[in-house]
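Quick one, T. Sequence first:
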Amino acid sequence: MPKKIRVYELARELGLTNKEALDLCLALGIGVKSHSSSIEDAQADRVRRKADAEGLRRAVQPEEPPVEKAPATSRTAAATDGERPAEPAGTAPRPAAAAGGPAEEERAVARPRSGVVTSRPVSEVTALPTAPRPAP
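Structure tokens:
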């Protein structure tokens, strides 16, 4: 059974970035989709020879450039901050929680027009009137 190697392992061995190793594989017609793809040992030898022929081999693998993330939308930004996402306009309000639940502990401040939800911490919420509990 032929031995296999991952493209990222080959890149580390040759001192290339994952993208450079991936591009070498694609230039040789080796069907890979990502740096995690496996290739046969014979194909890896072809990539090694091509890297040597083009003078791409390095002693140390360079750092991969950081991947830029798309800016978060207001809905996901609010969810990651631990707040509830804004409800779209025209939707019915959510049913209220049971008395004494989290909905009474944290009241949302009026929503600004930007769609970002702002709320006060429980420690800043003024005392809310509560109904007396019935006796058991």
